[in-house]
Amino acid sequence: MNAAQRHPVIAVYPGSFDPPTLGHIDIACRAARLVERLIIGVYAHPAKNLLFTAEERVKLWRASLLDQNAAGNIEFRTYDDLTTEFARSVGATALVRGLRTVTDFEAEFQQAHMYRRLAPEIEILLLVTDLPHLFISASLVKEVARLGAPIDTFVSTPVAEALRAKFAAQAP
C-alpha cells in the first residue's frame, strides 16, 4: 500500500492516569511519533480510588506535556464508556498500551484479546516503557507522595506540585 492509499492513523492511549507519570508521558510521546493523531483518553470513573478528578487529570496531562515540549498532535478527552466504544467514537484505528513488567504483559495480553473480540477493526499497539520508568506506577507514586518522600524523578513538575498540594490539603 502506498502513502496515497493509507488512511490517517488515529490512536487512543486510554487509562485512568491518576496521576500521569513520566512512564505514561514517555509512552504518549513515543506513540505520538507513530501516528497522525494521538488521543489520550482519560477514563473518568474507573473502579479505583481516585485522587484527582477527570478534569484535573486532563489538566495534569496538558501541563506535563508542555513541561516535556511534547508533540502537537496530542489531544485529550475524558470518557465513561467501554474503551473500544470510545475509540470508535473518535475514529481511532489503534489503541496504545504501555508495558513495564511481565505482570503488565500478562494483563495487557488478556486485555488486548478482549479489545480484539469487541473491536476487531482496532489494532493494539504495545510499547515497552523506557528503562528509567520501568517500575513507576501511579499508585506507588501516590503512596510515596502521601508519605512525603521526593517524587520528582517519577512525575513531571506540575504533577509533583499537584500531588504535594493535594496531600497538604488532606493533612490534619
* Total strand segments: 5
CA-atom Rg in angstroms: 16 Å
Query: Could you list the spans in which at least 5 consecutive residues all have pLDDT below 50?
Result: none
**Beta fraction of the residues?**
15-25%
The third-level CATH topology is Rossmann fold
- Tell me, what is the CATH class? Alpha Beta
Helix-strand sequence: EHEHEHEHEHH
- What structural class is derived from the secondary structure elements? alpha/beta
Tell me, what's the shape?
globular
Can you say what the CATH homologous superfamily is? HUPs
Overall mean pLDDT stands at 91
Instruction: Count every helix, treating DSSP H or I runs of 4 or more residues as helices.
Output: 6
The oligomeric status of these chains comes to: single chain
CATH architecture: 3-Layer(aba) Sandwich
Separation, N- and C-terminal Cα atoms = 62 Å
Domains (count): 1
Largest sheet: 5 strands, parallel
Output the strand order for the largest sheet: 3-2-1-4-5
- Helical residue percent band: 40-55%
Write the layout of secondary structure elements.
Blueprint: E1 10-15, H1 22-32, E2 37-43, H2 54-67, E3 74-79, H3 83-89, E4 94-99, H4 102-118, E5 123-128, H5 138-146, H6 157-170
Parallel strand pairs: 1-2, 1-4, 2-3, 4-5
Describe the fold and architecture:
- By secondary structure, this protein is α/β, with parallel strands linked by helices.
- It has one domain: HUPs (Rossmann fold, 3-Layer(aba) Sandwich).
- The chain contains 6 helices and 5 strands; from the N terminus they run βαβαβαβαβαα.
- The protein starts with 9 loop residues before the first strand and ends with a helix.
